Amino acid sequence: MAECRQALGPDALILSTRRTASGVEVTAALEPAEEPVPPPPPPVAAPGAPDPLGRHNLPPALRSRIGPGNAAALATALRFAEVPDAAGRPLALVGPPGAGKTLTCAKLATRLVLQGQAPFVVTADSQRAGAMEQIAAFTRVLGIPLALAGTGAQLAQALTRRARGQPMLLDTAGCDPFDPAQAEQLLALLRVTEAMPLLVLPAGLDPEEAAETARAFAALGARHLLPTRLDGARRLGGVLAAALSGPLALTEAGTGPGAADGLTPLTPAWLSARLTGPARPSQEAA
């Protein structure tokens, strides 16, 4: 039997033995090897089931970089960061007209006041009707200084009023980054103040439009993105496209009109829940 196992291997199965005139006859067999179990097929969405990312109108090329919307995939594909500290370099809120820069400036100023700081707010928006009055209403309530600086000379003068280490928020006029004259005007403002631009962009934009806008502002120095109107937006493809295409780090989001509680920190978990959560009625009907 030892010779049989040596010849056939340790898996040999001895079926029977009998003595013969010439020796011992052994009947043996080999157990068939187990066939490998094929891996389970990838899960297939039920017919008609909505694609969580598809309903947000994210372009397929960008959708493939994120995956099925889990937090780990978002953390890898996107960058997240805090709003830059305005106590060092001034923080300039930049973006297209109507993005919500002035309200975002008021929200950031309110937060600083609640933290015991007194930010210096400068508005460079001397073109939009009511812009000065809007930000002035907030600064009066907060009891913090406000300066109007529509020209380079006024900006230089405003900078002399800033105390050492005092946070400075710069509310800029709406800028079309594809217009060379407007882009150069914004660049000049950033050079004079040495401010760090924070792109403010409304949610709900067409993803391709948002991506092109983000790249244009990134060329002007923006490295961070603060999307607004996430409380009313039903599709976030524009926000993701802007962050991926800039590329820009996601900071916080405008999620309400309140100056004291209208900003929400953006994290992979928060964004994943928003992307894969139940569709709103208008999305289901779309």
TrEMBL record:
Transmembrane segments: none annotated. It holds the Pfam family SRP54. One of its GO terms (molecular function) is signal recognition particle binding. One of its GO terms (biological process) is SRP-dependent cotranslational protein targeting to membrane. It is found in: Cell inner membrane. Keywords: GTP-binding, Membrane, Nucleotide-binding. Residues 35-45 have a biased composition (Pro residues). One of its GO terms (cellular component) is plasma membrane. Residues 31-52 are annotated as: Disordered. This is Uncharacterized protein. The lineage of its organism: Bacteria, Pseudomonadati, Pseudomonadota, Alphaproteobacteria, Acetobacterales.
